[in-house]
Design the sequence.
């Protein structure tokens, strides 16, 4: 099974963190293929960046092409997820979505714990996009500056554990999700210090992508996620243009 | 990995259907252990039967004892699920829950298609229990009598496919869930005749139980799903009494 | 008028408290018949215990048999209520339901004040089951150990009054409900010390049961609360088995 | 026990219907005191009329003065209810409120069946005001002209029964409420022809008013329903002005 | 363009504040016509007063008669708004409605900041009436006594600014609305001291009334806001009676 | 006053329709500056296209630069709106947002009537994004093929009027919104044939943009819509990169 692990951020170190934590959760036969955005911002953190980064995620999926059993958009906030689900025939899973739905099987309400308050409104709107407001106790974000996005999890480990414990004590969280992508792998290190189940989004996403790949649901041919008909484009990245114009099919693509 | 497939109904033929469809979705190393209720009703279909069947599910989990990596309560409607999640240390997944959360990764809104209108109010309340009202287009139930619970999927295959197509056309479902337990295995047979992804609840549940077993979240030691303290009981089935009274621990149980 | 006051807990002292407070609220002609669970736990406090206790409540209703004008399931959290409403032809009222609906006529939002944090998640889910989330300011629970379930109201009177006042000041509660069953009778003692209307659940439940008995609505013959058709059972308590199998009718029962 | 049955419409025949049906549901010792609006419209049916009629209801309550144990605002839609609850020290119950809350104890979802489509938006907003949207399957209104408001229940009996049956079959109503005031007494006549419990709002309201009178909750001294402080007024009906200016107290009123 | 600025309170000084702030926001060609209630209370602040004040607002609109392009009901809480929208053919805008809808274009969530806790429950119900619960972070009210309604904005300027800043810091408000009518004009004075956009309700209302006047939507001839048919009345203010009885039309009114 | 009318579609004819209808609604002193996307698709109609088109809208706003008092993103569905509100200091209004909020002042519930079923899921998610679900009766879309996007309003005028009438009769819409951009100007032509107020989104948007420009709210300096701090970018369109990197300020920009 071949799963695309798509990081819509330009920071390769974050892709490495994602790959390492994702790999640990993967089944023996699963090949995880990492891919880092070549354009965009180092780390998507606002609505505007998610708008841009989601469009870049679509470009990357188009460029990666056929041959994957499933793909993961590996930014908590799930930029471009619903558009990708519409456009491509293989299953696409979001980091936030996978983490939240997995958390739902471990308790009635989860808390999202993260390292920067800038992320909170975007994450908040992601919870609403997935219709999971009643399952979420809210978002708790550290309000401290940090050195670098790729080391934030080591630098802030203790503060994040304290925050997770607050989410349990004050917000009555049954489950804690440590997000986003730069915290990949942290859950495993700190789970003994947090008294409720702790979710690592990329581990959850790899398992959920495998599940969709195994269940092999047919691509929608009706409803709101069927592939849109061909449409002319101007000035878009060539692989994405090819997908929207349906030129991929002429090339024998099974995308 | 050892997963308990617990059928809270007394009909062994339904357990066989569940086992066959669950087994097909399981990973190579997974051992699926079926268990049929020794007391209760042939097929849980109403609120009263779910109340009783949920209590029986707790008895069965207590009796099955330690040694499982995860358990599935294999009745759509998830009788006893939240109580089980509270009481036992291994992860417990519900058939409805697993099907609905998996469906959420394939579209914005799913429809639940089933074979008897008697089931609809119970399923409806199950959707509310999981807080997924905005993700569900509703429940569509056949209103035709059938010969037997264990053959209903063969007898009503065409009618169920028609109903699923109605759910797509009229209710704008992005995904269809064929439920409950007696329809186990049907999704795979009919998926070409339904133009959106089709979910088989037991296949989804086996994969989700595996996922929780692999992620190995620690049992909650705080929050609303921590194990309740010991409490005396009167007249309960012995293994369940032992769990509630914490006598299992004295016997070296790891439950 | 004959009303069954069913305590699904095994503690007879709690039944006595319920009876005393219920009796004070009853109309002159009302005969209140108390009944204590013969099996189960001393005091239902968790989801698992509610699952079991609800099934026991159904057994008790079946055993009590015909001849009642209405019944009260006298545990806040209403274990087994919806199943009972489905199965039996006489009206059945829950303690939480009666208290909350009565509170709705005295203000826009009520607070549930109780003596143990263990009860909060169960009560919370009960509010959701009744669709009254927007009418409830939340649940405030004491977090102090207590000597015995039957004396907790005396021991913690002052602390509960302080908590009720907090619910008014901080949560903007218009009405306070003192729950569950072990607090029966407390409302009357402390109402002068709480500056909003205070509800005693069992007093409300007795009055609401009388109301349904007087209005004499016909048992549903359609819809989701019609009595289910006969169904075979295995290993259930005999009176409940008789009800589910419709053997009660053959015996001329009017249940 | 003395209960004020306040009809905020100017049609005395409707008051008579309300009194007759209310009287049948009342307890032996209850004295029901009818009162018909001296100004306003024959039958409140729109938002504008409810705005005016609610203000008139407050005038009537002020005029009726002290000496009542409880009052009923006997127009479905509950004009002036929340203001009355704020202003007066005796309990005040609305016709819609009492009917809907009583219906909640007989099934999960009720339908409101009425005789004119003009009433639907006002009733709809009343359901929202009480936060009962999830308990209501909607409003079904006859769309036929009728002779007179005081005979509409006789003239349209069959059509209303058909509509109630539609509410059960198509909307899955567990309970039917026959409203508003001009249908007082109809429920009892037709309940055999509707296969779910049928609520007569005035019967429910009389019983609920009695319940509040018996439970004797203290008037709120804090929270959003405490009596507002004294305030000068200009040009209001004298008894209402006296209440708002707190001149009633100086006269030894216990209102 | 001629816009009626209707103050349903009897305090002329508040009308002057409203006029001054409204005038500053008005387009060059707009004539703003102020009107102060001749009966009622100095300042509407409770549910009961809103019930009465809303009826008075309808009387005032009827009395003002034809010749206006739009009207503003200038009390935050929008007393009588929906009834007015039903009854009259020119557009009618509420102060709260205009402020909240305008705020929605400047951020995802607004806070309502006001000068008295008495106003909070009424404002809260107004938010619900407009279905904007998810856009509102709540209501923050000063809890300090003040000298006079017409000077409260000067007296409490600093305290209100502090409160607005709290709404931003603690409630995560994207926008602040300074309400109600007695704070007209304050937003402009203090906007530099509040770090998010600040809305002056009357400025918003004047602009929204102009917008409706320019767009010239036709009065509804169907749906829930069509003008109700003629109906007899008793004892109502003559101009309002004329409107309800449709006697205005006979006089060539274009109302 | 200078308002940017930004069409994120590449079809210049649609920009012309928008400009013509927008111009008619504009105030005398308003200069409306049209701008058509140079890259993208002829007409945004799906989630994927909205993801891409929203990113293009941000590029266009950055390119247009300082000097505008407000901007309109003139595609119903509001692609890129929340990101734009975050990034730029002038007010930005969406076509859907302006239409829906304006409709809210003309009735309780609006219907969105459009020319293609492809648009419905995107519009639906836009309603949710704005939290207006309870104000919307749903989306009604023609299901007929059409010749060209720029003539569809003429070709389908009668069918759209029929659909709007259905929305009134069947869905109980109080207001109808004719959307999206290719229907600009149609509302005015057909309003006599639809018995409730009809909204032209671009007319509403021009007026709402003017309103925000007149009220001159300060750009948020706190909360979730403050401008994000500078961040490096790779491979983005130069003007947008300059905005995200805060290089625009160094050039004396007032953006």
Sequence:
């Amino acid at each position: 099974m071949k799963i695309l692990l798509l990081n819509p951020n330009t920071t390769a170190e974050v892709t490495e963190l994602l790959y390492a934590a994702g790999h640990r959760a993967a089944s023996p036969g699963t090949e995880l293929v990492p891919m880092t955005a070549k354009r965009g911002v180092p780390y998507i953190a606002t609505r505007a960046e998610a708008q841009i980064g989601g469009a870049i995620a679509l470009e990357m999926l188009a460029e990666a092409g056929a041959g994957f059993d499933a793909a993961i958009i590996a930014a908590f906030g799930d930029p471009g997820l619903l558009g990708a689900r519409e456009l491509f025939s293989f299953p696409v899973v979001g980091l936030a979505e996978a983490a939240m739905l997995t958390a739902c099987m471990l308790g009635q309400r989860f808390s999202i714990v993260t390292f920067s308050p800038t992320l909170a409104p975007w994450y908040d709107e992601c919870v609403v996009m997935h219709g999971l407001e009643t399952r979420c106790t809210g978002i708790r974000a550290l309000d401290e500056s940090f050195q670098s996005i790729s080391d934030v999890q080591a630098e802030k480990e203790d503060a994040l554990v304290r925050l997770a414990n607050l989410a349990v004590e004050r917000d009555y969280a049954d489950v804690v999700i440590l997000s986003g992508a730069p915290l990949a792998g942290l859950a495993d290190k700190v789970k003994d210090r947090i008294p409720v189940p702790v979710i690592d989004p990329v581990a959850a996403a790899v398992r959920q992508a495998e599940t969709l790949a195994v269940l092999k649901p047919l691509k929608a041919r009706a409803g709101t996620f069927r592939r849109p008909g061909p449409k002319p484009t101007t000035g878009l990245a060539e692989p994405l243009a090819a997908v929207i114009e349906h030129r991929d099919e002429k090339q024998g693509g099974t995308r």
